[in-house]
Design goal:
Blueprint lengths: L3 E6 L4 H17 L2 E6 L4 H7 L5 E4 L2 E5 L4 H8 L1
Parallel strand pairs: 1-2
Antiparallel strand pairs: 1-3, 3-4
Length: 78
Amino acid sequence: MSHHVTLMSRVDCHACDQAKADLERICGELGVSWDVQDVDSDRELRAEYGDRVPVILVDGEEHGYWSVEEERLRAALA
């Protein structure tokens, strides 16, 4: 099964920048597609995720927030 990871993020967020670097490395190693969505670009996204960014989604389902738990993410993508 092919997975997809989405990072819910915002500009000028240090934790988001770290999560992006982690996802770039991990997803790159595993060959998993991923993207970044700015929660501040949409009122509904900001309302849902704004207080918890970064939020990591795997296949559209919330996987975690505030930081990438590498071992857990690798297991979910295996």
